[in-house]
Amino acid sequence: MYIIGITGTLGAGKGTVVEYLTGQKGFLHYSVRDFLRQEIVRQGQRVNRDTLTHTANSIRAEKGSSYIVQQLFERARSKGSDCVIESIRTPGEIDALEKNRDFYLLAVDADPGLRYNRIRSRGSETDMVSFDVFRMNEEREMHSFDPNKQNLSECIARADYVIVNNGTISDLNLETEKFLEKISYYKYKEK
């Protein structure tokens, strides 16, 4: 069972990698964002970037920095299939998942202007912000000494493979294939 964690910056193409892995390779998808969205709706709050961040940080502070991804991993393990867990945002989440020998972390990044244009075009409830707010949100999520808060810079630094997604979707899919080759995915699948 391959467990791929996806980390990276907002609008870099993490979701497109997930679509490729689920659609072309049969991976099951487990989303931190969906987990948080369900909790926010259950609490009767509005889903936006602030409530997503606040809820994630609150859950991590109360139940541990890896609680959310551990819940998703347990769901995946019960299925016994290759899975992708999106989006790893804290070093504690990586620490918990690294205990599994078949865990690999993939990071996706891209030019900030390109990423901003991508999020604006997808138009979700969390994406309709100015470029200044986009950059401010990103800076808030990039560094933290609190293990329960997002620290994308450290997560990206710890990745087994980093894709810089400044090109086309085809380019991104090719880079995803290179990552799969690096982790010996096809060698394992041939057995």
Give me the secondary-structure topology.
Elements: E1 3-8, H1 14-25, E2 28-31, H2 32-42, H3 49-63, H4 67-79, E3 83-86, H5 91-97, E4 103-109, H6 112-122, H7 131-142, H8 152-157, E5 161-164, H9 169-182, H10 185-190
Parallel strand pairs: 1-3, 1-4, 2-3, 4-5
Helix pairs in contact: 1-9, 2-3
Describe the overall structure.
The structure is a single chain. The protein is an alpha/beta fold and 191 residues long. It has one domain: P-loop containing nucleotide triphosphate hydrolases (Rossmann fold, 3-Layer(aba) Sandwich), CATH 3.40.50.300. The chain has ten helices and five strands; from the N terminus they run E-H-E-H-H-H-E-H-E-H-H-H-E-H-H. A five-stranded parallel β-sheet has the order 2-3-1-4-5, with helices on both faces. Helix 1 packs across helix 9 and helix 2 (32-42) packs across helix 3. The longest helix is centred in the N-terminal third of the chain and has 15 residues, at 49-63. The chain is globular and about 45 Å long.
